[in-house]
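Notes from hallway chat w/ T.B., transcribed later so I don't forget. T.B. wanted the structure written out for a chain they're using in a teaching module, and asked if we could keep both sequence and structure tokens in one place. Agreed to drop them here.
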Amino acid sequence: MSQQINVGLLGWGTVGTGVTKIFQQNAGLLAQRTGIPLFIKRIADLDLKRDRGITIDTGQLTTRAEEVINDPDIQIIVELIGGIEPAKTLILKALQAGKHVVTANKALLAEHWDEIHSTARKFSQEIYFEASVGGGIPVVQGLNEGLAANRIQAIYGIINGTANYILTEMGRGQSYSSALARAQEKGYAEADPALDVEGGDTMHKLVILASLALGKRVEPQDVHVEGITRITDQDILYAREEFDQQIKLLGIAKQAPEGGIQVRVHPTLIPAEHLLASVQGVYNGIYVVGDSVGATMFYGKGAGEMPTASAVVSDIIFIARSIHMGAAGKVPSVYYHPQKSIDDLKIEPVGELISEYYLRFNVKDEVGVIAKIAGMLGEQGISIASVIQKARHQGNMVPVVIMTYEAREKNVRKALESVDRMPFVMQPTLMIRVEKFDE
């Protein structure tokens, strides 16, 4: 029996540096939690000269990932490169070489879930991915193990800290552009923030959560995705002052009332008193409803060096413990079903969604405009709960905010297509769904 378990890192950026720090600072604790000492034997990265604020034996470093994967003394490979390639190829090679894998790669898991998990199962290796969703929040293990007795009825996730930070700042009176600039200054947003603000990052994480929780492999193309770029600080003000609601970018996966499941990412009005409304700044919150346990809430830092490294090291500990006890690879970390054997749960088209809707029209200041809009909504069977007309914004443009009663989305969209063709409409209408949390 080996005297220690050796780990190899692929990628030594922010999170990889955090993992190294935890290994150095908490070596005794890790050995206690695992039952055997853990050691980072090799680290592969293209940039080995950058000062990371830690001291490490240069003999552990290499620029060649294959040297780490092919090292016969390494039992666990940690992939922290990110992106699809070369990460996918390296993970598959590691599994095929008899290595267990830990990854934080949400995009790769979302896009290639079947291939990665089937390869792990074929070669009797484990793959853990706690850090792929929610940074240091233990939501993956929470769903996979802690809530395993439950039929998950709904997941509502604030799972992109950048978007949540921007919306929080807009709620304090900042414009979208100012809030984004501030997020970039603080390092919360990339120079190109599209993946965060357009909803793609949230979609990748939702695909992972939904595939774990809802009994069906969810593909990225199954998810309806909208971002926050059309939200204004005025929308956040109207939602709060007029409707006692907050606007959050939510990833939602839930059982549909008429059968099937819903998977969608979009800005959402939620009650100001709801737990998710209190999730501010770069924090994440994931609200999970199970049929037995009821509502649960996972909350914490969704990114950053040490929170994400914490999740990575927890996965290493789980695998190392199994290796030490001779059980590694005998029970998959995720009970994986091939796509063809999964119950035929249908993804509900977003057009079938029934919701209340917040609608903001920017129109010319003319007599009879509201009546015309109401008439076109009425033609599609959409009833109005309230109408708010605000002061002029620019020149002759007036914002009109309408809150509808429940309506089917395809009917709302059809009505808005008609409205937006009218000469009195100066900008495309903004539509935001309202979530009621009927758990």
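Follow-up for T.B.: The CA atoms of residues 118 and 218 lie 15 Å apart. Might be a good example for the class.
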